[in-house]
Amino acid sequence: MPAAITLLIMLSALILPLEAQRLIEIERAEEEINRMYQSDQKAREAFIQDPENLHAIKSMQSLDEHHTKTIKSLLDHYEWIDASLFGKETSEQAITLILHASHALEFQRECLFILSKKKNKTAYELKQLAYLHDKVAVNSGLRQRYGTQFSIEPQGVLKLKPYEGSIKEIDKRREAIGLDPLEAYLEAAQSHYKKPTG
Predict the structure, then answer these.
(1) CB-based contacts of 135, cutoff 8 Å, min separation 6
(2) pLDDT tens for residues 107-137?
(3) Segments making up each domain of the chain, as ranges
(4) How many other CB atoms are found less than 10 A from the CB of residue 59?
(5) Is 31 buried (19+), middle (13-18) or exposed (0-12) by CB count in 10 A?
(6) β-pairing, 158-160 with 150-152?
(7) Cα(145)–Cα(162) distance, rounded to whole angstroms?
(8) pTM attached to this predicted model
(9) What are the Cα distances from residue 28, in Å, to 36, 74, 107?
(10) What span, in angstroms and rounded, lies between the C-alpha atoms of 150 and 157?
(11) Coil, helix or strand for 104?
């Protein structure tokens, strides 16, 4: 057998197990992200039902801290949870977890930089980039650009956090990246929270 063919066979024997291992690692990461996302959504649902419930708040914060550590570890390895590698659903779930890492501002800044520089962003990533931009800006004491961040006042009333320019300007920015008008967005968000009584 020619030496070149023998070498090719030997290399294939080494490469195939490595590729299989890589696929297994990706599958495990997908499962972990999905698990964290499901826990995240359950915790936030409990908070939405009663925004003044201290137990729900602490439980959500504890989960956020745990999830952030895991996402950080994954990003150290993969740089970004990209849809081309992990699939659309997992990528979107990972972005949601990053958005909920408000306690880790520097981490969110790093993610904002990575996502900003990413080529060929999906439509979903463009929208979430706006959310992440606003989240980092507000948590840095700056004004948001897309009107995605609001506070929850007594009885579940939503109050838009400080923003750049006028509502009309915000709507133009939102339209440019495929987000709904601000009024529709806030109405939809408000429907999830308790409304004033009487």
Answers:
(1) 99, 102, 108, 148, 149
(2) 999 999 999 999 888 898 999 999 999 999 9
(3) 3-103
(4) 16
(5) exposed
(6) antiparallel
(7) 9
(8) 0.81
(9) 12, 11, 23
(10) 10
(11) coil
